[in-house]
Amino acid sequence: MAEFAQFLLLCIAYHGFLSTCAMIIFTKPLRDKFFFCLKWINKTGDAIIQQPSIQFFTTVAASKAI
Question: Which spans are transmembrane here (predicted)?
């Protein structure tokens, strides 16, 4: 009985992992945020400090002007 319970637990974990991956891949807003986070993580701390995103600042300034 314990082996069957372990098998069911592995099946549920496997299903949860695959459904989460599918949700990230097939949902455009989640996919965009996920890949943005991957790009940001790959940058070094110095590169982030030295090269601030001009687009971010102009977007923030434009939203405050409205």
Answer: 6-26
* Amino acid found at 63: S
C-alpha 24/C-alpha 13 separation (Å) is 17
Amino acid at 25: I
d(CA 48, CA 40): 8
User: What's the number of domains the chain is made of?
Assistant: 1
Q: Domain of 26?
A: 2-65
Closest CA relative to residue 34, chosen from 22, 44, 45 = 22
* 52 three-state secondary structure: coil
Instruction: Please tell me the pTM assigned to this model.
Output: 0.46
